[in-house]
Design brief:
Strand content: under 5%
Low-confidence stretches: none
Oligomer: single chain
Keywords: Membrane, Transmembrane, Transmembrane helix
Protein name: DUF1624 domain-containing protein
Number of strands: 0
Pfam families: HGSNAT_cat
C-alpha cells in the first residue's frame, strides 16, 4: 500500500459504516417494527428484522475508532510540520465543540423535520465530539499507555453501571450518569465507554500509519487483532462472564448475539471493534484493486459528517413533516427500498460537497 493510498481503506470503511447507518435510519422512518419495539429491546418479529437492526451495531464503534485514528494522525502531522502542540490540540478541541453544538442545534431537531428546537438531548455526534476533545489530550501518549487507558475504561465500565441513580429524574446525578456511564432518554451514548473505543482507534491509527510499515504485515496484523476481538467476545458472553448483561439460551443461539448497545456491554466492546478491524483488513487487501467497485463507499466516506447531517432531515421531511411517503408503515422490504433511494440521492450530494470541501478554505467547511 503506497503512502498516497494509505487512507483509501479508511474512506471505504467509513463509507460502509455511513451506508449501514443510513440503512438503520431508513428503517427507523419506514419500518413499522419501531412502532412496536423500543430501541433498546431485541424482541423483533423475525430474523430479517433482527439482522436489519444488528448490522447497524457496527456503526458507532466504527465511527469512534476511525475518528480516533484520524485524531492521532492529525496531531502527528501537525507535530511533523513544527506546529505547537497546544495549537494542534486546540484545533481538535474546537472541532469537538463544533460537533457537540451541531448535535444540540441541528441533529436533535432534524429527527422531527425541524418541527421544534431540541436542546435536551446529548446524542452520538455530541459523544464523538466529546471523545475528540478528550483524545486530543492523550493521543500523543505512547501507544501502550493509550491501550492501557482504553482497556481500563472498558473493564471499569460494568462496575460504574452499578452506581445507583434514578433515571426518571432530571437532576445533576442523572445527567452525569447518562453523560458518562449509562444510557437513557437524555443520552444513549455515554462518553466514557465510547471514548475508550476512540482511544483504541488512536492506537490502531499509530499501528496502521507508522509502525506496521509493509502492506502484508499491516493486513495480517489487523486481521489477527480483529479475530482476537471476536474470540474475546465469546469469553465475555459466558454465563458467569464479567460484565455480561444480556441472558441467552445457549452458545451460538440467536439470543447469544443479542448484545447490549445502550450502554455498550463488555462483550459489545469486544465483538464490534473486532469486526471493525476485520472489515478494515478486508478493505486494505482489496480496496485499491477494486477501487472502482467501492467508489460509492469512498465518496460517502470522504464526506461522512455531511452525509449524516443531511440524510436525517431528508428522511424526516418526506415522511413526518410533508407526508410524501408513509411513516413507519412498511416492513423489511420498505426499509431496504428506502435505503437504496437514500443512497442514490446522497451520492451526487456527497460528490458535490467533497469538491466544495477540497476547494474551500473556510474553517466551518473544513470542520465538516
Amino acid at each position: 500500500m503506497a503512502v498516497k493510498d494509505r487512507f483509501i481503506f479508511v474512506d471505504q470503511m467509513r463509507g460502509l459504516i455511513i451506508a449501514l447507518m443510513g440503512l438503520d435510519h431508513a428503517s427507523d422512518y419506514f419500518n413499522s417494527v419501531w412502532s412496536r419495539v423500543e430501541y433498546r429491546d431485541f424482541l423483533f418479529d423475525s430474523f430479517p428484522q433482527f439482522i436489519l437492526r444488528m448490522v447497524s451495531y457496527l456503526c458507532a464503534p466504527g465511527f469512534l475508532m476511525l475518528a480516533g485514528a484520524m485524531v492521532w494522525w492529525a496531531l502527528e502531522r501537525k507535530a511533523a510540520q513544527g506546529a505547537p502542540l497546544w495549537k494542534a490540540r486546540g484545533g481538535l478541541m474546537l472541532r469537538g465543540l463544533f460537533l457537540v453544538a451541531v448535535q444540540l442545534v441541528w441533529v436533535n431537531a432534524s429527527w422531527g423535520g425541524f418541527a421544534r428546537l431540541r436542546l435536551d438531548h446529548f446524542g452520538i455526534i455530541a459523544t464523538i465530539g466529546s471523545a475528540i476533545i478528550l483524545l486530543a489530550l492523550v493521543a500523543r501518549w505512547f501507544w501502550w499507555q493509550r491501550l492501557a487507558l482504553a482497556l481500563g475504561l472498558i473493564a471499569l465500565h460494568p462496575l460504574l453501571l452499578r452506581i445507583p441513580y434514578d433515571p426518571g429524574t432530571t437532576d445533576m446525578k442523572m445527567r452525569a450518569m447518562q453523560l458518562l456511564v449509562d444510557a437513557g432518554s437524555w443520552n444513549l451514548y455515554p462518553v466514557l465507554p465510547w471514548f475508550a473505543l476512540a482511544v483504541v482507534g488512536s492506537v490502531a491509527g499509530e499501528l496502521w500509519f507508522q509502525r506496521w510499515r509493509d502492506d502484508r504485515g499491516r493486513i495480517r496484523n489487523t486481521l489477527l487483532v480483529g479475530m482476537l476481538g471476536v474470540v474475546l467476545f465469546f469469553f465475555a458472553r459466558m454465563p458467569a462472564g464479567y460484565g455480561n448483561i444480556m441472558p441467552f439460551d445457549r452458545v451460538g443461539s440467536l439470543s447469544f448475539w443479542f448484545e447490549q448497545k445502550y450502554p455498550p456491554g463488555l462483550a459489545h466492546n469486544m465483538l464490534f471493534p473486532g469486526l471493525v478491524m476485520l472489515f478494515s483488513a478486508a478493505f486494505m487487501a482489496v480496496g485499491v484493486r477494486l477501487r472502482a467497485l467501492f467508489h460509492p463507499l469512498e465518496v460517502y466516506g470522504r464526506t461522512p459528517f455531511f452525509f449524516y447531517v443531511v440524510h436525517i432531515p431528508l428522511l424526516a421531511i418526506v415522511t413526518r413533516r410533508l407526508g410524501l411517503l408513509p411513516y413507519r408503515q412498511g416492513e423489511v422490504a420498505a426499509a431496504l427500498l428506502a435505503w437504496l433511494g437514500l443512497l442514490i440521492v446522497m451520492y451526487p450530494l456527497c460528490r458535490w460537497f467533497a469538491g466544495v470541501k477540497a476547494r474551500s478554505r473556510h474553517p466551518l467547511v473544513k470542520m465538516m
